[in-house]
Amino acid sequence: MTTHPRTGTGAAAQHPAAADSHEMIRVHGARENNLRDVTIEIPKRRLTVFTGVSGSGKSSLVFHTIAAESQRLINETYSSFVQGFMPTTARPEVDVLDGLTTAIIVDQQPMGADPRSTVGTATDANAMLRILFSRLGQPHIGSPNAFAFNVPSVRASGAITVERGAKKTVKQTFSRTGGMCTRCEGRGTVSDIDLTQLFDDSKAISEGAFTIPGWKSDSWWTVRTYAESGFLDPDKPIRDFTEKEMHDFLHREPVKVKVEGVNLTYEGLLPKIRKSFLSKDREAMQPHIREFVDRAVTFTDCPECEGTRLSEAARSSRIDGTNIADACAMQISDLAAWVRDRDEPSVAPLLATLRRTLDSFVEIGLGYLSLDRPSGTLSGGEAQRVKMIRHLGSSLTDVTYVFDEPTIGLHPHDIQRMNNLLLRLRDKGNTVLVVEHKPETIAIADHVVDLGPGAGTAGGTVCFEGTVEGLRAGDTLTGRHLDDRATLKEKVRTPTGKLPIRGATAHNLRDVDVDIPLGVLVVVTGVAGSGKSSLLHGSLVTTDQAADAGVVAIDQGAIRGSRRSNPATYTGLLDPIRKAFAKANGVKPGLFSSNSEGACPHCNGTGVIYTDLAMMAGVATTCEECEGKRFHPSVLEHRLGGRDISEVLAMPVTEAAAFFATGDARTPAATRVLDRLADVGLGYLGLGQPLTTLSGGERQRLKLATHMGEKGGVHLLDEPTTGLHLADVQHLLGLLDRLVDSGKSVIVTEHHQAVMAHADWIIDLGPGAGHDGGRIVFEGTPADLVAARSTLTGRHLADYVAG
Known about the structure:
- The protein is built from 30 helices and 27 strands.
- It has 803 residues and is α/β, with parallel strands linked by helices.
- It is globular, with a radius of gyration of 30 Å.
- The two termini are 51 Å apart.
- The N terminus is likely disordered.
């Protein structure tokens, strides 16, 4: 007889406890984004893979419904005071969500690009190293703060009044030793500004000496403040300023001045430039401002700390000849070995935890990184794996882990390692939900959910739910393409030229010499960390030959914009549309912008009214005046081809392309942009859909469509298969072929074997990652690589085309 663990009776085995009945996550009536009343049951403590074409609703179901509701419910357990400091989200559009467990989201969102954020600070490895050096470092210089490049040294003294019983005034002194370099303030780099790019010193301020974008001679807040501050002679050429005038002009601390009766702040030119230009993210700048900054400012390693960010005192304390800057600069696999060699009983628990953390880096395939690597330079795949570090050794069970394409940026050789990690998390008793396209990861799933059948409005339904074998046998788009294999080209193109790279030493490259052929499709591959990005973005893009050849780099960086930004505004499509409406109706183009004159005055062109409810989720209600159309009612009276501007922005790309191709609405400039959007597989996207709702793959293809219209002769793409469904890869290969056949050169960093097989030329880096890589291990055609099988890539590609 089986004994029940709680009652000790065999009868209980026939009547399991009620708690044991919650073995499923049940979703009923999910309608988030494009989901169409989806009902589904997901088994707990199993690995479930969600697949489907890009835009089919995978992220809407997994991230915006299941994970979002789990996190919202957890946040509600905190006090209202604490909730006020947390991000607030509304309950997803779903009828019933049952059986949820705590969700931990490991997504591809880039890690903070703050210049003081590094791999070490993001994973707490740096904090443990600081404690280690504060305990064992010689000479002893202080607490862990003394080794922190984010902590400045502070000293203060003065009188304070203690109001306890009788008031008492006492003298206090305070000091804190930090590890921040005082010259670069913990950034590791200093900026040198070329004064000749800021002003013409042969002219006076009143004669328009400034050459800074936007600084016109009658500018109230800038030029006139300098001219009428009283510190300078505005009619004297700048080169004739006295030493005091030049100091006030360039370096004066902020001070209040009165200009024509108005109180303004006067500040030296250099600190003003640093605040108004250098404090902003370069990628968020307008093109002409970015060009000015690139021309006027150079960044070099700080001469005082030699780029380590740390004070001289922090660098003087050593453990067996190694200081903390040396430790953070080591490749993590080497640092792990260094930590293993330390044997000090007084810090044994710290060493054990630090060893586990560093070994997790190596295990997850990031042993080639260093702790001082700025976190903003990590790719989406690297950032996701760094976030996994803290979960690998966790003792938590019955947790739901949610992953967004964890194989992104991984060589086929590394995918098996990632699969093993996902299975380990599952085998500890956790529920693992993975959004993924790679067949290697789909193959290990216990349960598969296939969404579709199409994208956007054509998706949002569950096409298949069951085992991998059932998916393979089923008649869905994913099932039909699951075993797709590309074939090697029978004939490759002949190069029309070459881009030479000589003596490349960026990051881990070892004095690499290579000629990149032009006029063909070139694939640069190799394991993660082998030096691909260093070769192309760190060496090629910076050469004069690249500038002469017109190299256009299209990376995976996030598109910056507010909820007002949409595909029409981002691609420049809205400009010809506005002009067409204006010409057809005899009015100004500005009327047809919801960010300008034509905006609904009630909602300011957003289409919704946002109500902030403090620690509760804010409420967005459709604007009653414009009914969500975002435009003033009078603007909607103007029509083009029988449609108003709000109806046009509601069209998907394919419908809009047909609309602007013929008849009264014919607009060739708009059609060219729309054709490029359809060409990259975004035909289902709405013209007015906010950019904030796009997936990572959609954002990247939107950037690709935008750059396709540029004149650059060489397109440099960074893993364009990211976020692409198996069925879309063939479409991408056709697009790359059309780009090359149109006279452009295409250089692709890629791990997908189908793209490798389709290449005209392959450059393979390796043989390993970090200091084990950085060399060219193969150059030639895909057929030669398969025949030689001399590299990891060659062996995996040979197995792929043979399978």
